[in-house]
Write a structure and sequence with these properties.
The chain is α+β, with helices and mostly antiparallel strands. The chain has 6 helices and 6 strands; from the N terminus they run ββββαααββααα. It has helices spanning about 35-45, 50-55, 65-80, 100-115, 120-130, 135-145; strands spanning about 5, 10, 15-20, 20-25, 80-85, 90-95. The chain has a two-stranded antiparallel sheet. The chain has a two-stranded antiparallel ribbon with strand order 2-3. Strands 5-6 form a two-stranded antiparallel ribbon.
């Protein structure tokens, strides 16, 4: 879990509330589609400069360098990436794991799109996506493990 060392100042009339060590929880993971693309690159490549990320982004779509830079700065403010500023060239890394983001979005999708039914999600996914024999075998093995947990 990421801890922000900054203070959050909230003004309410004449009162100032200060909160130290604000923690990012799973519910705080709300990257935009563009931010998810950047996270995908960081998950795949690991620690990267803005230039590294930008070059990878432009393989699939038009993107300006300054746009990529600004997005990554915003992501750092949101706690989605961490920035190492010890050198002239800043290095960014994902502050959120791929598994954490997948779990968050999957839970949200199951709740909002499939009325809380994981079975409906799985049936829809298997019905609309051509799965390989090895994928189907892996699914069967996983279901067998769920039905017969080792004691």
């Amino acid at each position: 879990m990421l801890i922000h060392e900054n203070y959050l100042h909230l003004r309410n009339s004449s009162y100032i509330f200060e909160y130290e060590n604000i923690r990012r929880t799973d519910m705080d993971i709300k990257p935009t589609e563009s931010e998810l693309e950047i996270l995908q690159i960081l998950w795949q490549k690991g620690d990267s400069t803005v230039r590294d990320v930008h070059e990878e982004l432009t393989l699939n779509k038009e993107a300006g360098y300054t746009t990529t830079l600004k997005l990554m700065q915003i992501m750092a403010e949101k706690g989605l990436v961490e920035r190492d500023t010890t050198n002239r060239t800043h290095i960014y890394k994902a502050a959120v794991s791929q598994g954490e983001a997948q779990k968050h979005y999957l839970d949200k999708m199951i709740t909002n799109v499939f009325n809380g039914s994981a079975a409906n999600l799985v049936m829809q996914a298997l019905g609309n996506h051509k799965s390989s024999k090895s994928e189907i075998e892996a699914i069967k093995q996983y279901l067998d493990q769920l039905n017969n947990p080792k004691k």
